[in-house]
């Protein structure tokens, strides 16, 4: 068993744009498609602009998942 702490990282494999929801799905152990659908639903019903800003901030804040050297 690994005694490694999990960290939220953008997914390099499961991504549509920047891998935010792929990484979040891996971190939460949830299907990223469910997260993407929830994001679209919330974004549409909150006026679109806040959801786009939140996604862009996530892309800036959440680091990329880089392979270990």
Features:
single chain; 69 residues; mainly alpha
Quick synopsis:
The protein has 69 residues and is mostly helical. The chain has 3 helices and no strands.
> How would you sum up the major sheet?
none
Task: Specify the overall morphology.
Answer: globular
Radius of gyration: 13 Å
Low-confidence stretches: none
Helix and strand element order: HHH
Proportion of β residues?
A: under 5%
Q: Give the averaged pLDDT, no decimals.
A: 90
* First-residue to last-residue Cα separation: 21 Å
| Helix and strand composition category | mainly alpha
Task: Describe, in plain words, how this protein is organized in 3D.
The protein is mainly α and 69 residues long. The chain has a domain of 42 residues. 52% of the residues lie in helices and 0% in strands. It contains three helices and no strands. The chain is globular and about 40 Å long.
Q: How is the topology of this model organized?
A:
Layout: H1 20-28, H2 32-45, H3 49-61
Helix pairs in contact: 1-2, 2-3
């Amino acid at each position: 068993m690994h005694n490694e702490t999990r960290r939220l990282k953008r997914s390099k494999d499961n991504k549509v744009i920047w891998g935010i929801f792929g990484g979040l799905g891996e971190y939460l152990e949830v299907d990223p498609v469910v997260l993407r659908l929830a994001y679209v639903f919330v974004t549409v019903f909150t006026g679109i602009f806040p959801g786009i800003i939140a996604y862009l901030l996530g892309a800036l804040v959440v680091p990329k998942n880089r392979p270990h050297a």
